[in-house]
Amino acid sequence: MNAIVKRFVCCAVALSGIAALGAVNYSPEYVSASLALKVPGNPAEVYSLGMQKLADNYFDYELVSEEKIPVNIYQKVEKTENGEQITVFLTALEDVYFHYGQLVKTGFRHDDCQFYLPGFWYRRNLRSPEEAPSFHTSDSWVVREDRLSSPLTAIFNEKSGRSMSVIRLAVYDTDALTTHKEGEVILSGNTSIGYTGFENVGGVSCLSFGFPYQEAPKTYIRKLTLAPAVEAFQKLAKGESISFVWELREEKSTDFSQFVQQTWEYCYDTYRPQPVETSYSADKMKEVMSNFFVESYVSDYATKYFSGEGILTATCENGPVAEVGFVGRTLLNAFNALEYGEAKQRTDLIHNANSIFDSYLENGFSGSGFFNERVDFHRGDFGEVHSIRRQSEGIYALFHYLQYEKEKGRKHPEWEKRIKSMLDMFLNIQNEDGSFPRKFKDDFSIVDKSGGSTPSATLPLVMGYKYFKDKRYLESAKRTVDYLEKELISKADYFSSTLDANCEDKEASLYASTAAYYLALVSKGTEKEHYTALAKKAAYFALSWYYTWDVPFAPGQMLGDLGLKTRGWGNVSVENNHIDVFVFEFASILDWLSEEYNEPRFSQFAEVISTSMRQLLPYEGHLCGIAKTGFYPEVVQHTNWDYGRNGKGFYNDIFAPGWTVASLWELFSPGRAEHFLKK
């Protein structure tokens, strides 16, 4: 019997008969603990620990085994403002390799519960496929803390509205490498990464946590690849001591959305992430990134573009793919290059930008009049399938371009005609419930009916209403948010906004918040209040994907050696377990919500995001593992996961700087939507 299975059996026995509990009550009858000790070359031995109450002692409990073990373990339990703080002290009586774990019963029926591990697990992850962590594979999961935007697990009882959570309080400053990534592994040094999660024990939900890390029943090593469980052991030398602190908390919420809001605020208040000190101003960021508009420019084909998708970090050589939106963002980058080029009198940028717009007007459309949104010129592949997201992001960029040009006294009637025609086609493919299909063909036949990408269409529809004074577009936009409110926001179910995954993801909630924000900006009175409230509710889910703490790295892992602070960076999705700089207008939305609701956490965290995302700026002498100046990295692998190359502390070998440059450029160009919609 392996150590993970044996620990589960020990805990299951200790936690029998617990269904009546419904509050934090840290006492022997509600808690189980275990200690696994490993002698190198041998399977670990697992010892079930009982809690013996101590009197007139600094500690409240001694944890003892029926068998003699070479470790003294004591616990101190203290009431706090939030709940109960549990401090565990271990002292080795001889050299040992140890793994410590606890289960705390909630008293909630497992079948009544939804689960939340920030930036990784929402409800039961049932939007995710079987090949990713979800209830499809198991109803019990524990994971290493660095997978999570806050090292917390919370269990929400939908029937009672009560929840219990456990959060770790630690100085996260070390990590260690291992030679293996599955089974029982001995760490090469000290780590500060533990584990957290939830387990179903006899039909009752239990909080599960411990140190050092483990992952069970599977570990998630790369996209759609589950691997065998892993359990780490750290050396504790004779006479050495180590301590760990967890806080248990109970809360009452009206629904899952309020539960996520309260838990995010608790995480934020617990870790209090501060802005990252950096010498890079917004102007400096733009100056360096503007090199992307020079070196990525491709003029060899009928449509000119910035090569920003599917290129190698080792060379950053231009590729044959031109992509309007999503990870390419060539039209938004063209607008950014034009605006910046004219402000800085950079004729090279002005030329590149104008040639892109002119060539797309001439050659960038399908037979029906949609964008050729992703073209591979080497393969002669112009794409049979369109996506509402790429099409919308292209129109969004063009509206900014047209408004800018209008303010400069320059007119583009042919572009206006094209865009109006595209918006009219949007009206034709919108579903009765207000949603848009995620993917469709040029003949309007549906390829993917999922409505997860719907909020991306809201933005150009609202902009089209404002630019063309056509109320049909506003009504269409309102219908999109009606759909979002009914199917995503009210259900707290944000899914499949990204185009390369089918799962719970950050971008769905971020786009939903942005869509409501756009409608709020063009509304008044109770209608504005309603859209503002929707933007706020969705924003908490988007915020939950962003790190409130700094993940530690092992020596030799490049990101750690560069001193990367992960606070303010966002995890991507359940399928894609890396952090990135996807923010675009979200910081502006947070600042706006901060004023609307007098909520300083929003604006404070927006500043954390803004400063932290500057850290990996590549320039001569500080290339951060990227071949060219200004080509900002994308797949930042911060945990034990990869896209197929390099793993924690490094990037994947292929990246898409087109969208990273566009995202950061918008971050450092605040208030664009308000400028456009308030004109």
Could you characterize the architecture of this molecule?
The chain is an alpha+beta fold. It folds into two domains: 3-271, Beta-galactosidase, Chain A, domain 5, CATH 2.70.98; 282-677, Glycosyltransferase (Alpha/alpha barrel). The chain has 16 helices and 30 strands. The protein has a 17-stranded mixed beta sheet that branches. The protein has a three-stranded antiparallel beta sheet with strand order 23-24-25. Strands 18-19 form a two-stranded antiparallel sheet. It is globular and about 85 Å long. Residues 1-6 and 11-22 have low confidence and may be disordered.
Q: What's a concise summary of this model?
A:
The chain is 33% helix and 24% strand.
Rounded mean pLDDT is 95
Query: What fold name goes in the CATH topology slot of the largest domain?
Result: Glycosyltransferase
Whole-number total of structural domains: 2
Give me the CATH architecture of the largest domain, please. Alpha/alpha barrel
Q: Would you spell out the secondary-structure blueprint of this structure?
A:
Layout: H1 3-14, E1 31-37, E2 45-53, E3 61-64, E4 71-79, E5 83-92, E6 96-109, E7 113-117, E8 121-123, E9 141-144, E10 152-157, E11 162-169, E12 183-186, E13 195-201, E14 204-211, E15 214-222, E16 225-236, E17 241-252, H2 256-271, H3 282-295, E18 297-298, E19 305-306, E20 311-312, E21 321-323, H4 330-343, H5 347-363, E22 374-376, E23 385-387, H6 388-407, H7 413-429, E24 439-441, E25 446-448, H8 454-468, H9 471-489, H10 506-521, H11 525-543, H12 558-561, E26 570-571, E27 579-580, H13 586-597, H14 600-612, E28 636-637, E29 650-651, E30 654-655, H15 657-667, H16 672-677
Parallel strand pairs: 12-16
Antiparallel strand pairs: 1-2, 1-6, 2-3, 3-4, 4-5, 5-17, 6-14, 6-16, 7-8, 7-10, 9-13, 10-11, 11-17, 13-14, 15-16, 18-19, 20-30, 21-22, 23-24, 24-25, 26-27, 28-29
Helix pairs in contact: 2-11, 3-15, 4-5, 4-6, 4-15, 6-7, 6-8, 8-9, 8-10, 9-10, 10-11, 11-13, 13-14
